[in-house]
Write a structure and sequence with these properties.
The protein is built from two helices and seven strands. The chain has one domain. The chain has 93 residues and is α+β, with helices and mostly antiparallel strands. The strands form two sheets. Strands 3-4-6-7 form a four-stranded mixed sheet, with helices on one face.
């Protein structure tokens, strides 16, 4: 991610309460916690996930960063997927 690119202060992540899993994505070998600047974007992404009961959570950037850091490897980033083919990637480890 370039220095001129920033993440929004508020983000949406997908959470599966029954399993405590979060929506993640892999792009060019990099795994990250999926996040979106709009709830609608998160809901559209949820349609690709084969788990029923996914919920959207609005969180701050710092909270999303912490969630990404708490995910097991291979997740190493927070990934803004507003443009799914060109995600913004913020490495957390």
């Amino acid at each position: 991610m370039g220095l001129d690119e920033t993440f929004p202060d508020e983000l949406y992540v997908l959470h599966h309460p029954a399993s405590n899993r979060y929506g993640c994505f892999e792009h060019e070998g990099i795994h990250g916690l999926a996040c979106f600047s709009t709830e609608n974007g998160a809901l559209r992404f949820a349609e690709w996930i084969a788990l029923s009961g996914m919920t959207t959570n609005q969180v701050t950037f710092d909270a999303a960063r912490k969630l990404a850091k708490d995910r097991p490897l291979p997740v190493v980033s927070l990934m803004l997927l507003d443009v799914i083919n060109d995600p913004r990637i913020h490495f957390v480890r």
